[in-house]
Amino acid sequence: MFTGLVQSLAEVAKIEARPPGRLIVLRAPSQASQTRLGDSVAVNGCCLTCVAIEGDLLSFEAGAETLNRTNLGKLTPGCHVNVELSLALGDRIGGHLVTGHVDAVGTLDVRHDDQQWSTCWFAFPPQLRRQIASKGSIAVDGVSLTLVDVEPARFSVALIPHTLAHTTLGQLQPGSRVNLETDLLAKYVEQQTSAWHTAS
């Protein structure tokens, strides 16, 4: 479990084919000393298992399903990703509860910059519509954000200078693909109301 509060940016040091998946090696000096083999780490909001540690390099295996359903399949050496270590019991939750299980890939539709601030509109797949509500929470590439406006096929978020400077969201341009995870409680509410309607 994660909070959506990104701890650092990590550089992709190497991508190695491991059919049918890939080995993703990150240079993450801020997290390497705190990570043990087998730990869960959120990489762009996707929960991955650390399979090797060498100095400041952390290695993760991503299977075909992960590569197809997230933006991790598009990573190349030299690009950057958001990194967050998993919660320990008793940790402060400053964002919202994030599982690291990506629901879908969205696309940056429009970006409005106002000095050091930005408002971003992201297009999302229709199956997520019932789980997205204005003033609710969403994780975009692992970053916990508050939804501002919600339309049938897109939503907006307001990004503060700190978020733009310390996460990959500051680098996004229209057309950029992002991992989306809707609020955990919204999923359960939708599942229960759908089951109730089906039963009745």
Unreliable stretches covering 5 or more consecutive residues:
none
**Rg computed from alpha carbons, rounded to a whole number of angstroms:** 17 Å
Strand content: 35-45%
* Oligomeric composition of the shown chains: single chain
SSE pattern:
EEHEEEHEEEEEEHEH
Terminus-to-terminus distance = 34 Å
**Main pleated sheet:** 6 strands, antiparallel, barrel
Q: Give the strand line-up of the largest sheet.
A: 1-2-5-4-3-6
CATH class descriptor name of the largest domain: Mainly Beta
Mean pLDDT: 94
Provide the number of structural domains: 2
User: In which range does the helix fraction lie?
Assistant: 10-25%
Q: Give the helix tally.
A: 4
Query: Any guess at the CATH architecture of the largest domain?
Result: Beta Barrel
Structural class determined from secondary elements: alpha+beta
How many beta-strand runs?
12
Q: What overall form do the CA principal axes indicate?
A: globular
